[in-house]
Design a protein that fits this description.
The protein is an alpha+beta fold. Helix content is 29%, strand content 27%.
């Protein structure tokens, strides 16, 4: 049997009666009067593993297991006893009767519990690998992935193509300072990390590619802002032969598509638009309009 035949957090009543192999991290270990329960976690969620004293070698090894140990479990999927189901979990109606337990890697005592929501940023960044195991961080990174994928699907359907542009290039006279990378083969010469691929976008449009996009890294050697760090990601798009209204409608529709597919939220169609007079009345000055 392979190390993992099923995902721990996706095991359901459909697997009852099957012997499966799962792997993941110990979220909790509980000793209930001679029976040890292990809440095993993988990227999909949790499943309850039961180690009973009838299998002495398995039970003895389970006694040494602690939080965040990485383990493999082979066992029988069975229904939980009536009254012990947890309907908040996909796996809440079943449990795994452990027949074989393998400790893939041990762990020192974690400095915090992963379900602790009152952690300082210093603690989180000091123990970043544990921070990234927390459900909220896993959710955030999956959300970012889902948004990027829906963005790509929409732009692909709109006949945009993703073209990779160089990361090392010539410095350009733009607003922020460039990060410089010294050249090994040309003494005293430097490459610049691009603030944005603007020059390459323009080159591609003149070359006739018509519609292009990138979800791309950009670099600016500048002080931190509330919503931007020196290295950040942005969506760059360039298109030919469209007027202002067509461009606005295209990307408003992209935003609606992303919110609907990722968040199941319906946005207004079309977006509310302020006239110049309404904007002046609401915000009071051109400067504030631009900042908004």
């Amino acid at each position: 049997m392979t190390i993992r035949s099923h995902a721990a957090g996706l095991t359901t009543t459909e697997q009852i009666g099957q012997e499966i192999s799962i792997a993941g991290w110990v979220n909790r270990r509980r000793d209930h009067g001679g029976v040890i329960f292990i809440d095993l976690r993988d990227k999909h969620g949790f499943v309850q593993v039961v180690c009973d004293p009838d299998r002495k070698d398995v039970f003895s090894l389970a006694e040494s297991v602690r939080n965040e140990f990485c383990i493999q479990v082979k066992g029988l999927v069975r229904a939980r006893p009536t009254g012990t189901e947890n309907l908040d979990l996909i796996t809440g109606k079943i449990e795994i009767l452990c027949k074989e337990l393998v400790i893939l890697n041990t762990s020192v005592t974690p400095p915090f519990q992963l379900d602790d929501d009152n952690l300082s940023e210093t603690t989180r960044l000091t123990h970043r690998v544990l921070d990234l195991r927390r459900p909220q961080m896993q959710k955030n990174l999956r959300l970012r992935y889902d948004v990027a994928m829906e963005c790509r699907r929409y732009l692909d359907a709109a006949e945009f193509i993703d073209i990779e542009t160089p990361m090392l290039t010539k410095s350009t006279p733009e607003g922020a300072r460039d990060y410089l990378v010294p050249s090994r083969v040309h003494d005293g010469q430097f490459f610049a990390l691009p603030q944005s691929p603007q020059l390459f976008k323009q080159l591609l449009m003149v070359a006739g590619f018509d519609r292009y996009y990138q979800i791309v890294k950009c670099f600016r050697d500048e002080d931190l802002r509330a919503d931007r760090q020196p290295e950040f990601t942005q969506i760059d798009c360039e298109t030919s032969f469209l007027n202002e209204i067509e461009i606005r409608d295209l990307f408003e529709d992209m935003i609606r598509h992303i919110f609907k597919k990722v968040m199941q939220v319906e946005l207004a169609n079309p977006f509310p638009v302020l006239t110049y007079a309404e904007a002046m009345k609401r915000f009071g000055s051109i400067n504030l309009i631009c900042e908004f």
